[in-house]
Amino acid sequence: DVKVTQSSRYLVKRTGEKVFLECVQDMDHENMFWYRQDPGLGLRLIYFSYDVKMKEKGDIPEGYSVSREKKERFSLILESASTNQTSMYLCASSQASGGHGGELFFGEGSRLTVL
Amino acid sequence: SQELEQSPQSLIVQEGKNLTINCTSSKTLYGLYWYKQKYGEGLIFLMMLQKGGEEKSHEKITAKLDEKKQQSSLHITASQPSHAGIYLCGADGGETSGSRLTFGEGTQLTVNP
Fold first, then answer.
1. How is residue B39 annotated by DSSP?
2. What's the pLDDT tens digit per position in B75-106?
3. How many residue pairs from chains A and B have C-beta atoms closer than 8 A?
């Protein structure tokens, strides 16, 4: 059974803390994505990656960075967490498909609260 | 950039009733994906549509893509409490968008027994 695993389901952090959200997929997918989901705003793309050590900014990259040192792992980093980064974070992966979108496989999400 | 609008934003139905959720795009859709999300969890893939006029069904859920490829509908027949959740449409904007999908805001479905 294919799987995208996010390291933490629930996190509570304080303003200014550095936060790491880890995501691992076991499907040998080239593409990995980080979205955040907020009521009334839907899913918004933060960063994505087409290959190891490659990253691309999504629609809302400010305040975030990412790391992809291995094909199966894509990490989202909040250098200095702020209260407006309280959200549900969703990781996804997909197989490369010649430039067109393909089915995304999602993790179960990480709900981050910043106090 | 591509924008997706879903309607309605929320829907409450009695068990056994039929319902329809719509997804309208500001641009031509190269691929339209329907996902379901249970509260606080990840998204589960339902169906993908690519061709104008295409229709797919899985159990009691049917999705259609119009001929102009700018609107899709998701229809549930004889709804059950297990259908409750958030339904999201996602769009592939074509070659310039790479493999990324843009999502609508979602439709919250409640099915009362």
1. T
2. 999 999 999 999 999 987 665 555 678 899 99
3. 74
